[in-house]
Amino acid sequence: MNNFGLDIWSNKNFIIQDGEIKLNFKCMPSLLDITNAIRSKDVKGPMILRFPHLIQRQIKTLYSYFSKAIDENSYQGSFNAVFPLKVNQFPSVVEAITTKGKKYNYGLEAGSKAELILAMSQTPNGANITVNGFKDTEMLTLAFIAAQSGHNITVTIEGLNELESIIDIASTSSLKIPNIGIRIRLHSAGSGIWAKSGGMDAKFGLTSTEIIEAINLLKNANLLDRFSMIHFHIGSQMSDISPLKKALREAGNIYAELKKMGANSLSSINIGGGLAVEYNQHIQSHARNYSIDEFASSVVFLLGEIMDAKGVKHPDIFTESGRYISASHAVLITPVLELFSQDYQEKLLNFKKNNPPLIEELKELNRLLNNTNCIEYLHDALDHMESLFTLFDLGYIDLQDRSNAEILVHNIIKKALYLKSSNPTNELEQLQTKLQERYLINASIFQSLPDYWGLGQQFPVMPIHYLNTTPIRAASLWDITCDSDGEIGFNPEKPLYLHDINTDEEDYFLGFFNVGAYQETLGMNHNLFTHPNEYTININDTDYTITNEIKSKNILDILDSIGYNKDSILKKLKTDLLKSDFITEKEKSGTLSKLETFLEQNGYLRTTN
Length: 609
Ligand SMILES: *Cc1c(COP(=O)(O)O)cnc(C)c1O
Fold this sequence. Notes:
alpha/beta; 21 helices
């Protein structure tokens, strides 16, 4: 697995060249160059790198396959897309969507009041806004305000009470009325770990009886001409395409029936999101059984076929793909602070004049180990180790002897792994698994990979350099939170091997990929670690620029954000220090300015890496 499954998950967005991972675009900068450029400005800790060209690529791919399918099927309706803000509301992401999506009239989807306000302030003129989720009268009034302010907005109702509120607002105000959509409750459900949005027991949507009721309510209120869309969403990260096809047949027939019932303004079907992203790093499993090509042509073909059979005009198609659009654009870079077995360095050996015979033997094994004898010598070393432990327990050797033995055996194992790395025996592989190396990463899994913590969702991870050498250490990754859940353990079925690096002498950076969807606002401030520093990287033909720096919250701001008063914290710390004894005034003021600097920094570690 020398390329860490890059050919499986990266969709050719990245390539390995000269031992480093590079962006496969224009001037092809390496992630290490970008990382070092940022770190040269005294930035430490984890960082999120955003690549808007990867958002552009996804938007373009989505549109090109739908327009291909529309051509091939002589489909009469149009294709439209909105980006669901819940997937990533960060300013640089929304900006990338609206600027890169401008020529497609790309819109935004909102699922809460704050997201609706965001959509109203960021959607380019004329682009669509769709609104989903549970809504109160205030939120519905906001939608009226958006319509009044010139937005092309469709509010999808999740229940009849929402429709009643809309009718109410329409009758008591003269604000422009938004387009109305109805979310339908499908009997077909999705697939995959996020497939809870479809099915009879789904959280959202109107049953067929309720849909009929809704049409009657609209008719009576003279609002049927505002009813323009039906909507469904069968869940995220759809692994299998067949539930989608079932949903399309169901929704397509509901659409056609409603048209026949006189819903003349009804013109679109919104198929929600769900397009899956490849997170797998290992060949044996795949996240989805369909391509974007198959996805687009299934949607277009099925809807065309149903409408033709029922003699109904082809609807416009809306999609709300979020994960598919934004996952690939963000990479989390984390410095490795420490390898736990780094303590077993050869330079720490401290022999006596007279060492116990077994130690002398270990010394010889270590000195003479080579490709031919390494398995045999390894067995001897492990054997001696056992005996030495027994001798220690019985009081025959001392702590220094034991330390020497541990270092020697560790070295022998490492050397054997190196010597056999191109073709490890079964036994060595098992040994490798047993002798996992723990890599301490300067990041919080709770903050930056919450779906790993909450759902066991794996993200592709690999070093961004040293890729010319074979990684031989079975790796488990530990984050810097004081929580044993902050660990990505070694999984022999999906093994991660990393390099044996001396972090006192060299930097070692891991990249976590496809983290641009859902992770950022889902991330939590456990131990008060906050969103890492982030940067937007624009890549040109001959160079690249680093823009839109957003710094991680500093320590005082973190405390302030959970309700402490940062001024009184600062005051208390200062007074305590100033009234303390036994240091000079000079040292006091030096310490004070140190303290102030610390409080201006974020909580990630700085000194080791
Ligand atoms: C979450 C959500 C989406 C986005 O789903 P993805 O799987 O990220 O594409 C789209 N529509 C609705 C209604 C949603 O709730």
